[in-house]
């Protein structure tokens, strides 16, 4: 075995800043000399006048990686000189390091052999994205980890009973004697960890489990640390029920989120009534009213506004205003109350405005106008809106552009386009429920590829009401205007292969997924009615990531549809508008005009290539 380059030291110290509520954190210190590959600043760098300018050139990617941490290239060089490992094993370990680096889109010299740096990055890699199977990826990561073990970066997991104190050895013997797999799987590593940090069994608390999570995150590079932590906590609590001599204190999980939204029952009844009355007025305005008219809103918009208003009232209450003092919309819209609620939202966003803060400020001002509140109130709310506004610059987010860019690879796009039929061609096998759910995902993806619907419309499709048959093999997907966000009807003719897939799925889904007379194309699992929109969207996202290796939510299919069409038909915004159901072509242009940039630059590059080649 080679000598270790890295020595890990476990230290307990008070950590008052830990948000999970733990009193201590684990510190794994690494010994070593400063990284010689980072030269001192040059004289020109030292002449910079702005105090922060010298930091602008530093990459934050590895800012928390200890300076002396070796790279994968260092490990490969070390393995080449190893005389203990067999040549074939040495080759596998070096291959694992190289392939992991390739999956990270880096050279081995650019990958630090640091488990904490590696763990979250490897967790984000989908095997399909690098063109390999899940099993091959697991073997690759295992080889990389074993290479780190061989070089002393990660300690081999060795558990010897003789290492345990008498108190822990007694409990360990109980667990082994029970032969209970629900205890034997999660508890061994947890027991040895607690023994290692010198905690007596009677003194174990939830904070020690959080320390265990820290340790697993640091020393594991491929598994799910949080799942391991949760299994340990549940295993400990299960042992209390199954082993009479087990310590009796139960371990708890920390709260995962700070509650902002108050339960509806906590609000004053008059406030809820006022909110619902206002939204009813917005959905069904009086056409003959003498006051200023406003355009009606859809039921989905009303539901969004209701959520926003109840959440903002919760912020006002959280800022110190007694909830019983918010008995009406007028009470909530008092400038002093609005300011306190907005300040609390800003405090929760590091003092910066955001789209959601801007939206609520705009909604409150609109309501003040509709409710004919005093001019002083409207002026104050207008001032808040002007200070907090986030202007819509149009176009897609950088994240969506990045995800679409991956689909410009013809191979990746082709795999996505063929995915629904490939899934449908798989045999159902013994696990029919799971297989049919997978086919349901395939139908959803197939529809989105040809009909770029919003997820709210996709999830509520009804077989007889929205899928219209006309002649042999013809099927149209028809959604009436009153069910569409912008009140415009949608109609698509489905291609024959998709019609065949839908018919095959409908013929096989009952009674495993639903009853034979279920009206919904995508039924909910445990209740009558359609699947929840968010649930279906998450399933589509997971399916595409698993099968194709691309992060793609349901809404991104709308962007993909426009990208495909504009690539083939530059300037074809009117057709794109009709596909998406936008009310105006200007909206379509504002969102998607940038998509043609790549096509334009490719066309320009082709012209340059012809001139260079003398054509």
UniProtKB/TrEMBL annotation:
GO BP term (any one): DNA recombination
SUPFAM superfamilies cross-referenced by the UniProt entry: DNA breaking-rejoining enzymes
Keywords, comma-separated and alphabetical: DNA recombination, Plasmid
Pfam families: Phage_integrase
Domain of life: Bacteria
Domain Tyr recombinase: 408-609
One function term, GO molecular function aspect: DNA binding
Region (Disordered) location: 31-52
Name this polypeptide is given: Site-specific integrase
UniProt organism field: Pukyongiella litopenaei
Taxonomy of the source species: Bacteria, Pseudomonadati, Pseudomonadota, Alphaproteobacteria, Rhodobacterales
């Amino acid at each position: 075995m080679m000598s270790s380059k890295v020595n890990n030291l476990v230290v307990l110290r008070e950590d008052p800043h830990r948000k999970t509520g733990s009193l201590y954190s684990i510190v794994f210190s690494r010994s070593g000399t400063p990284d010689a590959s980072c030269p001192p600043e040059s004289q020109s760098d030292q002449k910079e006048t702005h105090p922060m300018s010298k930091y602008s050139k530093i990459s934050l990617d590895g800012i928390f990686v200890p300076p002396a941490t070796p790279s994968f290239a260092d490990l490969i060089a070390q393995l080449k000189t190893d005389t203990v490992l067999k040549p074939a094993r040495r080759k596998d370990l070096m291959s694992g390091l190289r392939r992991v680096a390739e999956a990270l889109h880096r050279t081995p010299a650019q990958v630090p052999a640091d488990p904490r740096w590696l763990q979250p990055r490897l967790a984000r890699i989908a095997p399909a994205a690098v063109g390999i199977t899940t099993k091959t990826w697991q073997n690759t990561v295992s080889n990389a980890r074993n290479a780190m073990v061989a070089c002393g970066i990660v300690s081999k997991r060795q558990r010897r009973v003789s290492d345990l104190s008498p108190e822990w050895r007694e409990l360990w013997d109980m667990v082994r004697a029970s032969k209970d797999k629900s205890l034997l799987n999660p508890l061994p590593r947890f027991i040895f960890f607690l023994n290692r940090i010198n905690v007596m069994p009677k003194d174990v608390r939830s904070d020690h489990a959080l320390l265990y999570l820290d340790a697993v995150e640091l020393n594991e590079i491929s598994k799910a640390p949080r799942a391991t932590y949760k299994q340990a906590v549940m295993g400990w609590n299960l042992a209390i029920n199954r082993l009479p001599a087990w310590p009796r204190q139960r371990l708890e999980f920390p709260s995962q989120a700070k509650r902002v939204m108050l339960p509806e029952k906590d609000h004053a009844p008059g406030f809820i009534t006022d909110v619902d009355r206002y939204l009813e007025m917005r959905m069904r305005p009086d056409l003959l009213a003498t006051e200023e008219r406003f355009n009606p809103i859809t039921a989905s918009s009303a539901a969004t506004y209701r959520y926003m208003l109840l959440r903002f009232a919760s912020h006002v209450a959280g800022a110190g205003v007694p909830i019983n003092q918010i008995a009406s919309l007028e009470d909530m819209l008092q400038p002093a109350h609005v300011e306190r609620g907005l300040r609390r939202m800003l405090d929760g966003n590091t003092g910066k405005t955001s789209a959601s803060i801007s939206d609520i400020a705009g909604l409150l001002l609109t309501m003040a106008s509709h409710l004919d509140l005093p001019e002083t109130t409207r002026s104050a709310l207008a001032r808040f809106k002007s200070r907090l506004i986030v202007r819509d610059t149009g176009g897609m987010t950088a994240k969506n552009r990045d995800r679409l860019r991956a689909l410009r690879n013809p191979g990746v796009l082709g795999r996505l386009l063929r995915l629904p039929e490939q899934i449908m061609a798989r045999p159902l096998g013994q696990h029919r429920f799971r297989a049919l759910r997978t086919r349901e995902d395939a139908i959803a993806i197939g529809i989105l590829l040809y009909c770029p619907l919003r997820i709210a419309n996709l999830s509520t499709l009804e077989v007889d009401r929205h899928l219209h048959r006309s002649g042999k093999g013809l099927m149209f997907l028809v959604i009436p205007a009153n069910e569409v966000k912008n009140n415009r009807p949608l109609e698509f003719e489905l291609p024959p292969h998709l019609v065949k897939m839908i018919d095959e799925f409908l013929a096989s889904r009952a009674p495993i997924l639903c009853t034979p007379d279920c009206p919904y194309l995508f039924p909910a699992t445990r209740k009558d009615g359609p699947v929840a929109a968010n649930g279906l969207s998450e399933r589509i996202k997971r399916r595409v990531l698993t099968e194709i290796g691309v992060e793609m939510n349901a809404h991104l299919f709308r962007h993909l549809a426009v990208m495909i069409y504009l690539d083939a038909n530059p300037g074809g915004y009117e057709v794109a508008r009709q596909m998406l159901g936008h009310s105006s072509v200007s909206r379509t242009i504002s969102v998607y005009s940038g998509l043609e940039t790549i096509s334009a630059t490719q066309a320009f590059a082709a012209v340059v290539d012809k001139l260079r080649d003398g054509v």
